[in-house]
Structure formats: C-alpha cells, structure tokens
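Same chain as my last thread, 99 residues:
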Amino acid sequence: MEKQILFTETPEKFYQNIEKAVRKVLNEKENNEFEKQLFNRKQASEIFNIHPTTLTNKIDAGYIKTTPDGKFISGAEINRYLGIADNKKAVSNGNLETA
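reply #2:
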C-alpha cells in the first residue's frame, strides 16, 4: 500500500522547515562534541574571556568545576557556568554563537 503525504505549506516554506531541522540536528551534534572536550586553564580562560588568574580564583571558590586532578575543564562545565541553553554554544574564540 502506497502512502501519500499532503502538504499545506508552500514548497519554499517546506524547504525552510527542513533546513531548520537539519541545522538543529547539526548544532546539537556540535554542542555534544564541545561538551566532551577538555580544555586546560589557558584555553578555558580564553573561552571565558577572563585572565587565567581570575579563572583560578573562580575554580578555588568553587564556581567552576575541574577534573579531579584540577588540570582541565570540560566543555559541559563551561556551558553550565555560562548558563548556555540548548540553542547556544560556546566557541573556542570566546564568543557565543546562536543557532
């Protein structure tokens, strides 16, 4: 049995919705990859756009969590500290990028 799908949208609107869905999936994949990465304190301070000493002070105060050895900060922790929602991600140049 053959199934038919009826669209009530214009072709342009349909393609825009498909493109939006694909971009969302790709953004989620990139965000998951970022969250799995580990950054040393210098790299993390560049992402936060703060001096490394300030970052160390925030770590010592318990605002930012590190790996058990204290050498690395995960991308997930960076996103948590910055309060980034699912539709935003931190990028390595220290700026925020929206989807």
